[in-house]
Amino acid sequence: MATTAQHASPHRSSSSGMVFALIAIAGLSLLVVGWAVSTYNALITGDQDVRSRWAQVENAYQRRADLVPNLVETVKGAAAFETKTFTEVTEARAQVGQVSGKELAGVLEDPKAFERFQAAQQTLGASLQRLLAVSEAYPDLKATANFRDLQSQLEGTENRIAIERMRFNEAARDFNTLRSRFPAMFVARSFGDRFAARPYFEAAPEAKKAPAVRF
């Protein structure tokens, strides 16, 4: 009997060890899965924040584009011979339209598309500055209520654009920091472009600050 007990003891000990090992592996697996889910959810939250900020940037830029036709027509009525300036503004607005719609659907995952969008907006902003500079030579134009109202709306819109760009850059920075951290980077990379690094708005080469509207 003693011999039988002695032979059975190592077997029971081995079985217990296997059970503990399996429990430890299961526990570790749960921890890894829990961490991965938590990291994924954090990436989703960061991505949604970036997209929300981007929507506000688009809204602000669209507001500026909507002001262009009325502004051009108002200035044209008093400065009809400034055709080159009017043409520049109209073409710049059309260029903005060309990088909208379907192309913007994946702009946050495509740095080149983002650059094209930013370049088009910078061109429109610069052409509007030239248009407003032209208006300085026409006191009667500056005295009209319609022009003053458009000036005020454009100034407010430029300020809003600057604010929304700043907020977008902050959200993009936070997201990029999160996705680049170890070991969260492994979760981000496993989803390909879903959590790709987000681009930033940069100041135009000729101006390191947001456009200022002065009248």
Describe the structure.
By secondary structure, the chain is mainly alpha-helical. It has one domain (15-195): LemA-like domain (de novo design (two linked rop proteins), Up-down Bundle). It is built from 6 helices and no strands. It has helices spanning 2-78, 83-98, 111-135, 139-142, 145-180, 184-190. Helix 1 packs antiparallel against helix 5 (145-180). The longest helix is centred in the N-terminal third of the chain and has 77 residues, at 2-78. The protein is rod-shaped and about 100 Å long. The model has no long low-confidence stretch (mean pLDDT 84).
List the helices and strands and how they pair.
Layout: H1 2-78, H2 83-98, H3 111-135, H4 139-142, H5 145-180, H6 184-190
Summarize the structure.
The protein is 77% helix and 0% strand. It is an all-alpha fold and 215 residues long.
- Helix tally equals 6
List the secondary-structure elements in sequence, H or E: HHHHHH
N-to-C span: 107 Å
User: In CATH, what is the homologous superfamily?
Assistant: LemA-like domain
The helix content is over 70%
DSSP E strands, number = 0
**Largest sheet, strands/sense/barrel:** none
Structural class of the helices, strands and pairings? mainly alpha
**Computed CA radius of gyration, to the nearest angstrom:** 30 Å
Label the CATH architecture: Up-down Bundle
Q: Uncertain segments of ≥5 residues (pLDDT<50)?
A: none
Strand content: under 5%
User: Which overall shape is indicated by the principal axes computed on the Cα atoms?
Assistant: rod-shaped
